[in-house]
Specification:
Length: 191
């Protein structure tokens, strides 16, 4: 039976091949499609991604160590009917030895121009699925707290004592994707 996570709750993963499914249902009537983008930041002990390829999103669907694979962009929020809109597959056995944490962030594309925020999005969640059995292990559903935010850190995988764990973060931001890239990458963006 899957665990329903609360904000801040942590669990042991205990598996190596999992998927992080992210889903949402846009509120109708804003005049624009809701283009939410799931991203993953593979962070080293200095709290930075070691190279820009360790930022996985719709424009870079595979990490260089082949540990992460992004399913691709859902530009309208219509990829699913109650299921995952974007998925990031994770093979923890392949994660580069420098990586100690993987952050999962969802941002609203062109949120300011489209006057959109998380208060207009319903049923947002992140869930962890066992890639071998297809069974859901845990799920964290966002509450209604994010009325003005345009980005949410849903959760993070982190390594502790050589074991991978997951924390349901639930941290909201009034920022765009560029904010997170500049926060976790100090080199020049080439792509």
């Amino acid at each position: 039976m899957a665990i329903n996570l609360q904000k801040g709750q942590r669990i042991d993963i205990g598996l190596s091949k999992i998927s992080l499914g992210l889903g949402w249902n846009p509120h109708e009537g804003t005049g624009y499609d809701f283009d939410l983008d799931a991203s993953a930041f593979m962070i080293d002990q200095n709290r930075l991604i070691p190279a820009e390829e360790y930022f996985v999103f719709y424009g870079n669907t595979d990490s260089p160590d082949k540990a992460l694979h992004h399913s691709g962009d859902d530009p309208t929020g219509g990829n699913s009917d109650g299921g995952d809109d974007e998925t990031i597959s994770v093979d923890l056995t392949k994660v580069d030895a420098r990586i100690v944490e993987i952050l999962f962030v969802v941002t609203i594309h062109e949120a300011v121009a489209r006057k959109q925020n998380y208060g207009q999005v319903r049923d947002s969640y992140i869930r962890i699925v066992d890639n071998v059995t297809g069974q859901e292990i845990a799920k964290y559903e966002l509450g209604e707290d994010f009325s003005i935010e345009t980005a949410v850190e849903f959760g993070r995988l982190y390594k502790r004592d050589n074991q991978w764990k997951f924390e349901a973060s639930g941290l909201g931001y009034r920022e765009d994707l560029a904010f997170f890239v500049s926060k976790y990458f100090k080199g020049q963006i080439i792509k």
